[in-house]
C-alpha cells in the first residue's frame, strides 16, 4: 500500500504577507468610502424627495360664503416656478440693460454720423475746388504743349476704365472725380517727363548747332544778310554773306556752338577771322576782330559759349563790329534765325 504525503504550502516571506495586507486594507477602505458616499447621497435624495413631496395648501375663501376652494401645490412645483421666475427676471434685467446700452450707442452713432456728414461735405467742397483749379491747370498745360508743337489736348483718353475697383458698379461722384484727377495727373507727369526729355535732347542739339548769340552783349544790326550797297565801294552792289553786329570794340566773341577751329588769323578783307566747323555740316565765321582768344589755334576744339576773340575793325571795315556768318556745307544762310535760338546775354 502506497502512502502519499500531503504537500505543504510554500512558506511566504513576511514582506509578501505585509504587501497583501496593505492592498486588502486599501481595497476595504475604498469600498467603505464609496458605500458611505452612496448612503450620504441617498439620504440627501430622500430628504429632497420628502421636502419636495410636501404640499402647500392655498385656500380661496369667497365673501359670499360660498364653497371654499383649496389648491395644493407641491414644493417641486414651487421650486421650478421660482427658478423660472428668477430666470425671467434676470433675462429681463439683462435685456433692459442691453437696450439702454444700445440706445446710448445709437445716440453716439447718430452724433458720429453727423460729424462724418460734415467732414464729407468739407471733402466734397475741397474736391470741387481742386477740380476747378486743375481744370485751369490742364488748360495751361495744353497751351504749353500746343506751343511746343505737341498734341492739342493731352487729356483726351481712350479706353481708360474708371471705377473698376467697385464690384457693385456704384461709385460716388466725388470718388469718380478723384480717380479722374489721379489719371490726369499721371498723364501730366508722363507728358512733362517727355517734355523734359525733349528739352534735354534739344539742349544737346542746340549745343551742337549754331544757336548761341555770338556776343557778350546785345548789338545793333548794321547790315543784314543779302544784296546791299558796298559800304566801302559805294558805287557798286555786292552780296553780303552774313550780318554785321555793331558793338563796342573789345567785346568778347563767343563760339555759337561746339566745334573745331578750321582756320584762325588774317584773311584779307575779313581781317582777323575765325572759322569753326560744327556737326551736321554747319560752320560759322567771325570776322573783323581785333585779336583771337586764348589757345585758339587751327585744330583746337571749342565749346559753345567759349571766348574765341574780341570785336574790332580789322580788314575791310568802316567801324568796330562783328561780321557773323552761318554756313551749311559750303553755302551761307541767313544767320538771323540762328542767333535767336539761344540768346547769350
Q: How would you characterize this protein structure?
A:
With 345 residues, the chain is α+β, with helices and mostly antiparallel strands. It has a domain of 120 residues: Glucose Permease (Domain IIA), CATH 2.70.70. It has four helices and 14 strands. The strands form three sheets. Strands 3, 6, 7, 8, 9, 10, 11, 12, 13 and 14 form a ten-stranded antiparallel beta sheet that branches. α2 packs parallel to α3. The protein is rod-shaped and about 160 Å long. It starts with 13 loop residues before the first helix and ends in a 6-residue tail after the last helix.
Task: Give the key terms.
two-stranded antiparallel ribbon; ten-stranded antiparallel beta sheet; 345 residues; 4 helices; 14 strands; alpha+beta; Glucose Permease (Domain IIA)
Element layout with pairings:
Blueprint: H1 14-53, E1 55-60, E2 69-74, H2 75-147, H3 173-208, E3 220-223, E4 226-229, E5 237-240, E6 243-246, E7 252-254, E8 259-266, E9 272-277, E10 282-292, E11 301-302, E12 307-311, E13 321-328, E14 331-333, H4 336-339
Antiparallel strand pairs: 1-2, 3-6, 4-5, 6-13, 7-12, 8-9, 8-11, 9-10, 10-12, 10-13, 13-14
Helix pairs in contact: 2-3
Amino acid at each position: 500500500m502506497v502512502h502519499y504525503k500531503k504537500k505543504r504550502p510554500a512558506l511566504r516571506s513576511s514582506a509578501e504577507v505585509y504587501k497583501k495586507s496593505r492592498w486588502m486594507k486599501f481595497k476595504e477602505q475604498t469600498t467603505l468610502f464609496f458605500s458611505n458616499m452612496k448612503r450620504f447621497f441617498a439620504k440627501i435624495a430622500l430628504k429632497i424627495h420628502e421636502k419636495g413631496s410636501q404640499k402647500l395648501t392655498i385656500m380661496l375663501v369667497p365673501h359670499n360664503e360660498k364653497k371654499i376652494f383649496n389648491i395644493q401645490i407641491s414644493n417641486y412645483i414651487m421650486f421650478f416656478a421660482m427658478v423660472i421666475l428668477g430666470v425671467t427676471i434676470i433675462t429681463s434685467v439683462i435685456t433692459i440693460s442691453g437696450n439702454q446700452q444700445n440706445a446710448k450707442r445709437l445716440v453716439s452713432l447718430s452724433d458720429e454720423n453727423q460729424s462724418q456728414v460734415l467732414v464729407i461735405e468739407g471733402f466734397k467742397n475741397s474736391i470741387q475746388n481742386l477740380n476747378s483749379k486743375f481744370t485751369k491747370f490742364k488748360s495751361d498745360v495744353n497751351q504749353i504743349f500746343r506751343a511746343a508743337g505737341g498734341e492739342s489736348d493731352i487729356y483726351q483718353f481712350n479706353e481708360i476704365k474708371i471705377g473698376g475697383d467697385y464690384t457693385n458698379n456704384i461709385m460716388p461722384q466725388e470718388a469718380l472725380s478723384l480717380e479722374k484727377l489721379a489719371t490726369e495727373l499721371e498723364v501730366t507727369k508722363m507728358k512733362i517727363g517727355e517734355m523734359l526729355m525733349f528739352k534735354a535732347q534739344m539742349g544737346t542739339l542746340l549745343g551742337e548747332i549754331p544757336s548761341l548769340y555770338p556776343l557778350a552783349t546785345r548789338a545793333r544790326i548794321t547790315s543784314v544778310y543779302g544784296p546791299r550797297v558796298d559800304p566801302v565801294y559805294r558805287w557798286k552792289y555786292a552780296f553780303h554773306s552774313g550780318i554785321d553786329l555793331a558793338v563796342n570794340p573789345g567785346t568778347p566773341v563767343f563760339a555759337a556752338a561746339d566745334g573745331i577751329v578750321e582756320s584762325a588769323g588774317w584773311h584779307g578783307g575779313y581781317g582777323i577771322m575765325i572759322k569753326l566747323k560744327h556737326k551736321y555740316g554747319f560752320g560759322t565765321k567771325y570776322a573783323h576782330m581785333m585779336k583771337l582768344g586764348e589757345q585758339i589755334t587751327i585744330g583746337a576744339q571749342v565749346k559753345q559759349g567759349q571766348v574765341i576773340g574780341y570785336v574790332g575793325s580789322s580788314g575791310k571795315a568802316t567801324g568796330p563790329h562783328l561780321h557773323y556768318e552761318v554756313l551749311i556745307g559750303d553755302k551761307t544762310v541767313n544767320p538771323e534765325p540762328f542767333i535767336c535760338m539761344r540768346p547769350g546775354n
